[in-house]
Each structure stands twice: as structure tokens, then as C-alpha cells.
Amino acid sequence: AQTVTQSQPEMSVQEAETVTLSCTYDTSESDYYLFWYKQPPSRQMILVIRQEAYKQQNATENRFSVNFQKAAKSFSLKISDSQLGDAAMYFCAYRSITGANSKLTFGKGITLSVRP
Amino acid sequence: GAVVSQHPSRVICKSGTSVKIECRSLDFQATTMFWYRQFPKQSLMLMATSNEGSKATYEQGVEKDKFLINHASLTLSTLTVTSAHPEDSSFYICSARRAGGQFEQFFGPGTRLTVL
User: Fold this and answer.
1) Which of A1, A30, A50, B34 is most deeply packed, by most CB within 10 A?
2) In terms of CA atoms, which chain B residue is nearest residue A46?
3) What is the tens place of the pLDDT at every residue in A26-73?
């Protein structure tokens, strides 16, 4: 079974600064998807970024980028130019490619606060 | 973008009663829907996976007779909490995957259930 580990329960960043959220995972599969989801106080889950394991290039979405290290099974999220609206809980998630019903495996999440 | 709605957003009920939560995919057909439970400051816990027209697959430890899931159409899934008790109070989130979708999984806004 796959596992996703987010070892830091909380982090804080100064507005306009950069912060990196860590995530490691364990799997025996060679192809899979990795995701970062944001859950703001409204509790609506929002997809931040995704990475297909077969792609070597790290995914980027505006101020959000990942550092995907497949051999190390590491998938960290970097938030640049942090904004107050980035304050939320962030979840790292894994999903197998095979199987129509393959499910997301979430990490425990990390609460990010942004200091004005 | 794809939208998933949930109704109601909040519900308060008395112990022993049943509560139904609806999950709808508004602008796409969802072949697979997922139901999650989330406690405050914790991760999402998958309860069950449902496919249109077939029985739901429950995760280990989830009582299928207590949490009834019906995926009657490609746009609607319902979760019924039967004989609710205070320990069932939680935040319930549904998620839908569209037909032919590779990695997209869209989340509803959640339903807060309080059992008195």
C-alpha cells in the first residue's frame, strides 16, 4: 500500500517570502500521479498542482512549483511571493495511474500561516 | 471548470435520526464518486468509492449499513447516515471523477453534520 508522509504539522512564512512544504511517499509503482491540494478556511479542496511521475520536468503553476525527486520519493511544494490568501491547510496526495477507481492517498496535511 | 455541489452545507439532527447528503456533478458526468470524512485539523479519510449503477466499495472499518451510499445516476450520489449518533458529527466531503478523466478529481464544498 502507498503511504504519504507530511512530517511538519505547521509552518509560517512572512508575506512576500518563499516557503517550501515537504512531502515524502512510499510506493512500489513506477508510474503514478502526485498532487498538492489546498484547503482554506472555507474547507473547499482546491487543486494547486499535479505531477505525473513519468515526467522529469518539475510542474509549475504561477507562484507554485514542485521539486519532484523520484528516486528519493520526495515531492515538495514551493510557494513564492507568499500572499495572505495562501494561508490554508495543504495536503500532499498520491494516486495510482492504473485502475478506474484508483483512490487518492492523502498525507496528514500541514497548516500554513502567512504573517503580514 | 467542473463543479461539484453538495446539499445541505450544514445539518443538525437529533440522535437516532437519519440524514441524507446529496452530491451532484453539475456540468459533467461522474462515473466514480468518493465520499470522505474529515475531523478538524485532520486529513481526509476515504469512506467509500461508488460507481454509477453498482454497489459502493467501502473502506475497512466503515460500516456500510450505517453509511448508505447510492450512486443512482452519472450526476448524483447520496450518502445517508442512518441512526446518527454524536460521534458521527463530522465534515463530509464528496468528490467526483469524470468519465474518461485521467487525473481530474473534483471536490464538493463539504457538509458539516452535527448530531445532538
Assistant:
1) B34
2) B107
3) 999 989 999 999 999 999 999 999 999 999 899 999 999 999 999 999
Q: With a CB-CB cutoff of 8 Å, which residues 10-29 of chain B face chain A?
A: none
Mean pLDDT (chain A, rounded): 95
What the block records as the C-alpha cell of B2 is 467542473
Cβ distance of A103 and B49 shorter than 8 Å: yes
> What are the CA-CA distances from residue A78 to residues A13, A62, A114, B29 (Å)?
12, 11, 14, 34
E strands present in chain A: 3-5, 10-14, 19-21, 24-26, 32-39, 46-52, 60-61, 64-69, 74-79, 88-96, 105-106, 110-115
Read off the amino acid at residue B30: A
Element (H, E) at A97: none
In this complex, the residue of A43, A91, A95 whose CB is nearest that of residue B91 is A43
C-alpha cell at A3: 503511504
- Say if the Cβ atoms of A42 and B34 lie within 8 Å: no
A17/A33 Cα distance (integer angstroms): 28
CA–CA separation, A77 and A36 (whole Å):
7
Tell me which chain A residue has its CA closest to the CA of residue B51. Answer: A101
Cβ–Cβ below 8 Å for A109 and B57: no
Chain B residues lying within 8 Å of A104, measured CB to CB: 34, 44, 46, 95, 105
Q: Does B46 touch chain A (CB under 8 A)?
A: yes
Can you tell me the distance from the alpha carbon of B6 to that of A106, in angstroms, rounded to the nearest whole number? Answer: 21
Q: What is the DSSP letter of B85?
A: -
